[in-house]
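Q: Here's a chain of 184 amino acids. Please give me its 3D structure as C-alpha cells.
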Amino acid sequence: MFGINLKDLRIREYTCSPAVTGRANVAFGAAYGAVVAVLLPVCGLPDVWSTAFLVASPLCLVLWGLYCWKLRRRPVKRQVTLGGPAHRLYVRSRWMFVVYGLACACVEYAVVMALVSLLESGADMGEVFLERLRGWFVLLLVMLYRVFFEYLSYYQYFHMPESSRRDLFTEAVKQMNEDGKKRE
C-alpha cells in the first residue's frame, strides 16, 4: 500500500483562488492564538522575545489570511505530488490522511526534540527532553499547520477544473526536446 514507485510520482501544478487558503489561515491563526492565549498564563510567561514571537505569529497568520481572503485577486500557483503515499492515502480515506499526518508530525516533533536534547545535554537527557517538549510546543503547531496545508492543497487540486492543472514533468520533457532541436 505504501510502496513508492518513482515512475508513478508526478508533480502537478495548478492555479486556485487564494480565498480558500485565506479563510483556512484565518481559522488556523485564530485557533493558534487561542491555544497561545490559554497556555501562556498557565505555563508562565517566557522571556520577552519568546512572548513577542508567540503573540506575533498567530497575528501574522491571521493578517496574511485576511489579505489572501479579501484583498488578493490573482490566482495562486501551487504544486502537489501525485502517486506518493500521502496522495494515495488522501484518495482512499481523508480521515486516515489527517490521522497519519498528525501522527507523523508528532513523531517528527518528538524526534527533533530528542536530538536537540541529546546534543545539548549529553547523558542527562531526560529532564532536558521534557523541558524542550514543553518549551517548544510552537514547533508542533507549525508541523500541524503543514499537515493542514497539505490536506488543503490536495482538496483544492481535486476541486479545480482540469484546465487549471498542468504536468510539470511532461512540460519539462517537451522543453528539453525543443531545446535539443534548436541546437541541431
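Q: Can you summarize the key feature?
A: The chain has seven helices and three strands.
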